[in-house]
Amino acid sequence: TGQNKEVSTMRSIAVLNQKGGVGKTTTAVNLAAGLARAGMRVCVIDLDPQAHASLHLGIGVDNGHDSIYEVLVGDASLADVRKQVAENLWVVPAHLDLAAAEMELAGEVGREVILYDKLAADDQEFDYLIIDCPPSLGVLTLNALAAVTEVFLPLQPHFLALHGLSKLLRTVDIVARRINNHLRLTGVILCLFESSTRLAGEVAGDVDQFFTNGAGANTAWADAKVFRTRIRRNIRLAEAPSFGQSIFEYDGSSNGAEDYANLAREVLGVPLANSEQPKLAGAA
Ligand code: ADP
Ligand code: MG
Q1: What is the ipTM of this complex?
Q2: From the alpha carbon of 233, which atom of ligand 1 is closest?
């Protein structure tokens, strides 16, 4: 059990931004589905009381008392509530009850490491664990940060994109120092990208600059990068959740499916298709 974890090669990722509507859930679900299609065993943990990731993965809202709430506040194990939703893809669903967890755990000693402990006690092996965080930096998000080694930060490139970022980075850094010294910000994913607008390009440049200007030296975000894959705004991505399908099931030929397949490849470290490669200097 505990010994197996030492040699685990699982990558564990929290998809985090305390702002709502930036593409967290869309990214958690479709990146997970993309990785699963590439043959990886993937488990999504839905930590948002709104349960959008669970719905997106086809789990109904009336899943009753089989959710991450029972794991965090009660005696349930992850295995008790985890459901397989596709080949190679599992979800630990959320439930509206989870909104109360923040309060219910307030007086609990060690409340930030409950999920970490449950994961340590879990005997299932996955290649990827992906946690969809709620839009806050409260105890649920702290549980995610204590339990993973990587943070992926979706950003919507508009003029306030960097606003609030310092608070998020400070939180990640504090958790890395006090609770989980393996925690790092891997990178920023530009979501809802409008390739036709000048603003999107400018903000992308600003974000790039922000993470390469050295300000993060000696922090948990020192090596953060901006993922090369940009997730374009695509209506099919907005439609898919209400059908309980990932973008690959809903419309495999959409730009959304192409972008998330590319993101999955980038995360896996597989070279992207030729059209995505940077031009060589001197090449026409
Ligand atoms: P968050 O989890 O950060 O609140 P969501 O992933 O739920 O954000 O996205 C917010 C809304 O925008 C949702 O309605 C979602 O379907 C939609 N959306 C997300 N990404 C895209 C995209 N690339 N193109 C079009 N709509 C998107
Ligand atoms: Mg969400």
Answers
A1: 0.99
A2: 24
